[in-house]
DNA sequence: TTGTATGCGTTATCAC
DNA sequence: GTGATAACGCATACAA
């Protein structure tokens, strides 16, 4: 064999392939990218040269630098164990990753450590489920990274994807009012945009709703608060929760104390997530999770392309289940 | 002001900063990376020049190319909604992301689409929960990307992190045998490495265990299989499941049919995940999730450094809860 | 359809 | 402690 001596330990580059195929570097590049037409013959030569050299395709790192993109979108969710414990997070993220994957982009999980500022991200989605942390925000804005905020606070420069928390909460409250309830209690989430909106919606109908407490969307935490509340005498006939997990906790704890749902106590949730371990269909406000995820990912894609993107507020729908009933007289 | 005319619309580079600070490019680089000593005075000049130019630090894309690393580790989990529906996935991934984050690395979620082969990943973790798909495997191997397989099949060249499924399953089976059980049924996972091992452990003690069925670790699916099984008369006194979610389903369905657990039927699980919505502590095999995650991430880090890494098999522990009892005579 | 020539923005190697 | 210079591997504008 002729030709220059091969360095066996170096991974081949596109230049090596081009040389072996007897074409120019740019032609070899086009043979892989398909960004411009290449004759079938030369493409064949390039690909077979690549094959025999063990060339596995253009180095993503080099392409990224050249194109100024990493192909990776970050999603800030906070600590994974808490972020995903909330069943409402999953279907939404699933849709996000699906849309991105279809475009060949990857989804990178970010805690909140601001460490990830050193990673090359084409855009960042904030889906922090109420934990309103800024951490890396300033840095990302300074670097011009497009930001999409899901149900979050109004950060300047970000695109917002939201649902109509307030209307949903008002609808479920109206539903209870129609059933004759007048004295209701509420279990709220931690201080956050969704919490504020949902509570505001509730108080449009029940301005004097008693707050049982405030906790994350966690069964155990919610059950403890409910237990403390129900251990004192109360004239409340309904509990409005800000998540289905909380509502399930109220149902479980109420039953544990001998109450019947909904005869003795009506319970409403929010989200519309499956609770197959509960033998009772919750009355709740159903979010369009998939649509929310798609809207989020699509917004990120558009912003990466430099396009202007409108904020989105998606509608929710009241689902009347078996956990709410007419108030007993 | 003197000097060349500034292009206002171009984001500043390290060269711009160096020029503005009156130092060389390499010195400016060192001022940011700290890879070599730089006098405090010049570092100050560099940083203040960066500040006034709005330079936000070295471009990650360029650094990645130069260093041959992306700082991103992929984790193949399949479709998110199924991957995370299994509560066993969370604490493990949490530990993985924690370890990586401490090293400044990011964690990228991969479906199984092989699309992600075009992304620059420093290593890939396969945590596919029994879905034994190869998809991108060949490609990754060809590109020399280090692979870490968690509870997976024996892929050549990969590092393996596993738990002692077989011993755990045998221990829970022995526990039941000690309680007098002789006729047991089992609910198994989909065909996979964990399933095979766990079932083998069970059959060391109960070679003739009846298989109720095979399903993913999903409450509804498991409940349906159990319902079908219990609708026929049976002399089985215990059901051994391969996940806690399955076990919870068996408990729920057994009770729905008027059986008492564990008096009429003993039920055992696997994993040791919290099931706060079940008012019964499951007898189960507890996995060291956090340790598994740390071992996985650590293995990935070492392999990225080019070091050899030993496979890991972590021990499990039997936890006797209230879902198993002495067989009634 | 193909080839030539730049430059993406760094970091690392060397000399000073 | 600092500076000049050479890659890193590729995609594109432009010329042929």
TrEMBL record, chains A, B:
Listed CDD domains: HTH_LacI
HTH lacI-type domain mapped to chain residues: 12-67
UniProt keyword annotation of DNA-binding present: yes
Pfam families tied to this protein: LacI (PF00356), Peripla_BP_3 (PF13377)
PROSITE patterns for the chain: HTH_LACI_2
Molecular function as annotated in GO: DNA binding
Keyword DNA-binding: yes
Keywords: DNA-binding, Transcription, Transcription regulation
Designated name of the protein: LacI family DNA-binding transcriptional regulator
Species of provenance: Nocardioides hwasunensis
């Amino acid at each position: 064999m002729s030709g220059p001596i091969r360095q066996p330990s170096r991974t081949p580059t596109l230049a090596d392939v081009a040389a072996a195929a007897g074409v120019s570097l740019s032609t070899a590049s086009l043979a892989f990218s398909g960004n411009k037409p290449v004759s079938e013959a030369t493409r064949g030569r390039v690909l077979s040269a690549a094959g025999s050299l063990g060339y596995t395709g253009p180095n993503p790192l080099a392409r990224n630098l050249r194109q100024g993109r990493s192909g990776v979108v970050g999603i800030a969710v906070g600590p994974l164990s808490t972020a995903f414990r909330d069943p409402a997070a999953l279907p939404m993220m699933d849709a996000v990753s699906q849309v991105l994957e279809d475009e060949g982009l990857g989804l990178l999980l970010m805690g909140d450590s601001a460490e990830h500022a050193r990673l090359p991200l084409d855009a960042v989605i904030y889906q922090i489920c109420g934990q309103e942390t800024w951490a890396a925000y300033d840095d990302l804005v300074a670097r011009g990274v497009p930001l999409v905020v899901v149900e979050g606070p109004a950060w300047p420069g970000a695109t917002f994807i939201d649902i109509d928390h307030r209307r949903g909460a008002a609808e479920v409250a109206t539903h209870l009012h129609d059933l004759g309830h007048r004295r209701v209690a509420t279990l709220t989430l931690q201080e956050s945009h969704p919490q504020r909106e949902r509570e505001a919606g509730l108080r449009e109908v029940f301005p004097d709703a008693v707050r049982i407490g405030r906790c994350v969307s966690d069964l155990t935490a919610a059950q403890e608060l409910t237990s403390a509340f129900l251990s004192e005498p109360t004239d409340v006939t309904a509990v409005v929760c800000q998540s289905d997990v909380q509502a399930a906790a109220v149902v479980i704890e109420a039953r544990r104390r001998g109450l019947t749902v909904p005869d003795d106590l009506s319970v409403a949730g929010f989200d519309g997530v499956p609770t197959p371990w509960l033998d009772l269909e919750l009355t709740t406000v159903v979010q369009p999770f998939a649509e929310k995820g798609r809207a989020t990912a699509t917004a990120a894609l558009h912003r990466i392309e430099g396009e202007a993107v409108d904020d989105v507020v998606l509608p929710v729908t009241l689902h009347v289940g078996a956990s709410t009933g007419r108030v007993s007289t």
